[in-house]
Write a structure and sequence with these properties.
- This protein has 14 helices and seven strands.
- It is of the alpha+beta class and 408 residues long.
- It folds into three domains: 100 residues, Butyryl-Coa Dehydrogenase, subunit A, domain 1, CATH 1.10.540; 115 residues, Butyryl-CoA Dehydrogenase, subunit A, domain 2; 139 residues, Butyryl-CoA Dehydrogenase, subunit A, domain 3.
- A four-stranded antiparallel sheet has the order 2-3-7-6, with no helix packed on it. A three-stranded mixed sheet has the order 1-4-5.
- Helix 10 runs parallel beside helix 12, helix 11 packs antiparallel against helix 12 and helix 12 packs across helix 13.
- The radius of gyration is 22 Å and the shape is globular.
- The two termini are 34 Å apart.
Length: 408
């Protein structure tokens, strides 16, 4: 693992910094902690489609300039509109984006569906879908998890039965992020009920606004609407909207192009959160913190910062492996486990620092320290150790694949 840029990496980092110095729209330069209340929707794709007029204008400006460098989808092959960046170049790009508060390379369309189409899609699907994913004309949601199939996704029961040239889909998905903002959705469905559970699944996509699909909001404890339930009742999906072979959808969904998976953006966001907290607490005569009560928690703030540095090294380790042609396995589970639990520890520390002021929930209440950001994050991130693979699952992977411990 090398902590220093090579000459070529240094040159690329300078190129990214120069780009950011010249092309960040003012809208993204002036993001405030309560931007959600002002209409910011998160991610330039959603800004472009359902944001305020200011957000739409900024998103169009941003993606237009990104496209000049093919950085909308930096991990895609050049022949499909991407930049074909190496894993380490992607790491550098995402790091600099995160430090500058600009919209990340994100969204299920760019990060997941696009690479899947490149690998498994027909030429017709590539011509039809890839340009609209790059331009943001179509926004996407991912329909994988179900009430009875979360960590054990292969147990999904949403069914798709052939009827002429269509599949007829019935079932339910849950924790469907941004489904209320999306135009289309790609979903895993069971097409062979008698096959072993991993072998009877197909990968299809459809318009989320068509008849038979209902999107119901799931509101978090902090009043945030980020995820949803989606219900499918006799939804007709043309068979030609299947990606890959029938009953091979599990393997289609699990194969993505080699792109940056270190989650360095998340770790940088944590460091910035702590930087903001420390800066806030240094305000002269800060009325939110009494010196006696804070003295015991100041050491915890320092501990969290050190833990962020450890987390950054986990990210660097993973990307160093990928850049060397290796595939992180238990290393990725270790980083995910560490990252999600650190998320909750930082929120918890911030809550304790502000004591009873942490009972204030409203970001716009002038009495709320730091726009109640720690209070909001504390409840939003309850699911951090569940989403993307529970902590229990990650520990099992580390134990069996990493430490060679027996199963059962």
């Amino acid at each position: 693992m090398n902590w220093l840029d090579t000459a070529e990496q240094k040159k690329f980092r300078i190129k990214v910094k120069d780009f950011l110095d010249n092309y960040i729209p003012n809208y993204y330069k002036n993001i405030t902690p309560n931007r959600l209340a002002e209409g910011h929707t998160g991610g330039w794709q959603y800004d472009y489609k359902v944001g305020s007029n200011e957000a739409k204008e900024a998103a169009l400006d941003w993606v237009t300039n990104l496209a000049k460098h093919k950085w909308v989808a930096p991990h895609w092959p050049i022949e499909y509109g991407g930049a074909g960046l190496s894993p380490m170049e992607q790491f550098i790009l995402r790091s600099e984006f995160a430090w500058n508060n600009v919209p990340p390379v994100a969204g299920p369309g760019v990060n997941m569906l696009g690479p899947t189409i490149v690998l498994h899609g027909t030429e017709e699907q590539k011509k039809e879908l890839l340009p609209d994913i790059l331009s943001g004309e179509i926004t996407w949601a991912q329909g994988y998890s179900e009430p009875g199939a979360g960590s054990d996704l292969a147990s999904l029961t949403t069914r798709a039965i052939k009827d002429g040239d269509d599949y007829v889909v019935n079932g339910q998905k849950i924790w469907t992020s941004s489904a209320h903002k999306a135009d289309w959705i790609f979903i895993l469905v069971r097409t062979d009920n008698d096959a072993p559970k991993h072998r009877g699944i197909s990968f299809i996509y459809t318009n989320i606004k068509q008849e038979g699909i209902e999107v119901r909001p799931i509101i978090s404890g902090g009043w945030e609407h980020a995820t949803n339930e989606t219900f499918y009742q006799d939804v007709r999906v043309p068979i030609k909207q299947r990606i890959g072979d029938e009953n091979r959808g599990w393997y289609v969904a699990m194969t993505l192009l080699d792109h940056e998976r270190s989650n360095v953006s998340g770790m940088i966001e944590k460091k910035k959160t702590l930087d903001s907290l420390i800066k806030f607490l240094k305000i002269k005569n800060c009325r939110y913190v009494k010196s006696l009560s804070f003295s015991s928690y100041s050491r915890q703030v320092v501990d969290r910062y050190i833990e962020c540095e450890v987390g950054f090294n986990f990210s660097l380790r993973i990307i160093s492996m990928q850049d060397s042609g290796l595939i992180p396995n238990q290393e990725a589970s270790t980083a995910k486990l560490y990252n999600s639990e650190l998320t909750q520890k930082i929120d918890n520390t911030g809550m304790k620092v502000f004591g009873l002021y942490s009972n204030l929930w409203d970001p716009n209440d002038i009495r709320s320290p730091m726009h109640a950001s720690f209070t909001q994050k504390y409840v939003h991130h309850i699911s951090a150790t569940i989403a993307g693979g529970t902590s229990e699952i990650q520990r099992n992977i580390i134990a069996t694949r990493g430490l060679g411990l027996p199963r059962g």
